Amino acid sequence: MAEGSDSQKVNPNLVAEIVSSYVAKNSVPVDQVGGLIAAIHQALSGLGNAEPAPGALVPAVPVRRSVQPDYVVCLECGFRAKTLRRHLRMRHGLEVGAYRARWKLPTDHPTTAPAYSERRSTMAKQVGLGRKSGSVEPSPAARRRGRSRQPAAE
Predict the structure, then answer these.
(1) Where is 126: in which H helix or E strand?
(2) Burial letters for 74-86: b for 16+ Cβ neighbours within 10 Å, e otherwise?
C-alpha cells in the first residue's frame, strides 16, 4: 500500500514521455517495456527522498600499508603513485584535506612517497634553495676573471 501513496506523487504523463523517448532511441523488447516503466516510475518516486548515509568506508588497502618508501597508495581505489595530490583531484574530485577527513587520517599523513620527498629535498639543498642570500659563500669558480678595476685617476 506504500506504493499507492508514491504513485500519487509521480505524474504518469512524465513517465510516459520518458519511456516513449527512450523506446524511440533504443530497441527494447516488448516483454521488457513493463519493467522499464516500473523502473522509471520507481526512480522518479525516489527523487525527493533522502538517501541514508552509506556504511563505513572500506579502504582499498589497509591504512598502515598505504605508505611505502617508494610509493603511496590511494585508499579510494588502490592506485600507487609517488604523489597522490593530482590523482585525488583528477580521479576522485578531492583535495588532500578532504581526502584525509574522509578517511579520518591525521593531518601529517603523507600523500607523497618518503623516498621521493627525500630525493627532492636533497636536490633542493644541492641547488641552494632555502638558504638566506647572505649565507651563501661564492665558490672560487664564481669569482670574476680578468683584470681588477682600477679607480679612475683625477
Answers:
(1) helix 114-127
(2) bbbeebebebbee
For the chain, 154 residues long, give each residue's pLDDT as a single digit of tens: 445 454 457 888 999 999 999 999 998 899 998 999 999 888 888 777 766 556 678 999 999 999 999 999 999 999 999 999 999 999 999 999 999 999 999 999 999 999 999 999 999 999 988 888 766 555 555 566 677 777 776 6
Backbone angles phi, psi at 121, to 5 degrees: -65, -45
Q: Which domains does the chain have, with CATH numbers?
A: 2-45 (no CATH), 58-126 (1.10.10.1550)
